[in-house]
Amino acid sequence: MVLWVESFQRFCQSHAFWFLLLVYVLFTIFGSLLFMAIEQPQGNQFQAQVLEVRRRFLRENRCVQEGGLDIFLKKVYANGYRNVAILHAGENKWSWDFTSSVFFVVNILATSGYSDSNPLTDGAKLFCVFYSLLGIPLTLFVLSCLSDLLLPVVTRGPVRHLQTHWGLPRRQAALLHVSLLGLVMVMVLLLLPAVILCYLVPGWIFLDALFFCVMTLSTVGEGNYLLGREHSEEAQEGLEFFTTCESRRSGVGGQFDFSPGFFWCPFQTFGNRNESGIDPNTVGPPDKLYTFLPPLVPLL
C-alpha cells in the first residue's frame, strides 16, 4: 500500500502540469454550466416577454408589416450596440446557452469584461464575484506554468539552432530570433484573425477587425463591440467561440511577453568573462548571462 501511494505521488508530481490543466478546464466547464443553469431560465423569460410585446404590437397595429418591423428592429439593435442613441428599448439576444456561458466565463477569467455580458440574477452575480476571485489568479497561474514549459522551446532552442547550424554569433542569433518571433506573433495573433473576421462579419473593414482583435488580445474588452449580433444563432455561437479562442491565445502571448527570457539579447552580460568577453564555450542564453529586451510586440 505504501509503495502504491509513493508511486502515485511520483506520477502526480511528474504530470503535475497536466493535472493542473485538467482541473482548470473542468473549472471553466463547471462555471459555464452553473451560469447556464442560473441564467438561462431568466433569459428565456425575458425573451418570451419581448416576443409577447412584439406580437401585441403587431395585433394592435395591423398596418405594420412583420418583415418591415423585423428589419427596423435589427437596424436599431445593431446601431444601439454601437453607442448610437436611437431607441432606449433595445433588447439583448443573450440566450445563456452553453456557448454563451463559456464566452462569459472566459471573458471573466481573461479580465476582458465585455459589458453586455452580465448576469441577470442576484445569485449569478454573487457567484460571479467569488468565481472571479478564484478563477483569475488560477488563470494567471496556469498561463505562467504554460509559458515556463514553452519558453525553452520557443527561445533557447531556436537561438541554439541558429548558433550551431547557421554559425551566427550569439548576439546576431538573438536579434534574428526576436525579429522573426515578433513578426510571427503579430501575424498569428493580429493580422490573420483580422483578415478572417473581415470575411466572416458583413460590413466590417480591416480596421474594424483589427480594432476588435487588439481589444480582445489586450483584454481591454471594448464594451458593446461584440461579434455575431446580426448573424444567425449558429453563426453567433461560432463567432463567440472564435473570440474565446482569441482570448486564450492572448493569455499565452501575454505571458510570453512579460516572462523573463522570452526576448533576450546579450548586449550586456553578467557572470564569468574571459579576456575576449563571453565564454566561447557558451551556446545559447545562459541563466544569468543575458539581459532582457522589452516586449517588441505591444498589447499582446
Estimated radius of gyration: 25 Å
Which spans have pLDDT < 50 for at least 5 consecutive residues? 88-93, 228-232, 255-300
Q: What is the C-level CATH assignment?
A: Mainly Alpha
- CATH fold annotation: Helix Hairpins
Proportion of β residues?
under 5%
Number of strands: 2
Question: What is the average of the pLDDT values?
Answer: 70
Q: Within the largest sheet, what's the order of strands?
A: 1-2
Total discrete domains? 1
User: Share of helix among residues?
Assistant: 55-70%
The CATH architecture can be named as Orthogonal Bundle
SSE run? HHHHHHHHEE
Please describe the biggest sheet, giving its number of strands, its sense, and whether it closes into a barrel.
Answer: 2 strands, antiparallel
- Mass-distribution shape: flat
Class by SSE composition: mainly alpha
Termini distance? 49 Å
Number of helices: 8
Subcellular location: Membrane
Domain Potassium channel: 86-150, 186-225
GO molecular function: outward rectifier potassium channel activity; potassium ion leak channel activity
InterPro entries: 2pore_dom_K_chnl (IPR003280), K_chnl_dom (IPR013099)
